[in-house]
């Protein structure tokens, strides 16, 4: 599995459901199933590759009470890092091209 940096808020603990047949394609410490495929036509990820750092920073500020101060600080400290949206876009393209 390739580790990529597309989203900084890895606090979604409710995303595990081992009852559904799927192939896990992405995970984080806070979200063991951060991305998955179900058969040849369903591809999904928990992160939001469309988020730019400014949007992520704004959301973090607005949701600090929900997320927690320490996780918010940790996430904000990563906002300067380059994103891997191009890699994610290529995965999406390849998945649906193969499904055709």
Overview of this protein structure:
The chain has 100 residues and is of the alpha+beta class. It has one domain. It contains 4 helices and 3 strands, in the order E-E-E-H-H-H-H. The protein has helices spanning 53-62, 64-67, 69-76, 85-99; strands spanning 23-26, 35-38, 42-45. The chain has a 3-stranded antiparallel β-sheet, with helices on one face. Strand 2 (35-38) and strand 3 form a beta hairpin. The longest helix has 15 residues, at 85-99. It starts with 22 loop residues before the first strand and ends with a helix.
Notable characteristics:
100 residues, alpha+beta, 4 helices, 37% helix
Uncertain segments are 1-16
Strand pairing plus helix content: what structural class?
alpha+beta
Number of strands: 3
Largest sheet: 3 strands, antiparallel
Task: Please provide the ordered H/E string of secondary-structure elements.
Answer: EEEHHHH
Helix content: 25-40%
Instruction: State which percent range the strand residues make up.
Output: 5-15%
Number of separate domains: 1
Q: What general form does the structure show?
A: elongated
Q: What is the end-to-end distance?
A: 24 Å
- Total count of helical runs of at least 4 residues: 4
Radius of gyration: 14 Å
Major sheet: arrangement of strands: 1-2-3
Mean pLDDT over all positions: 77
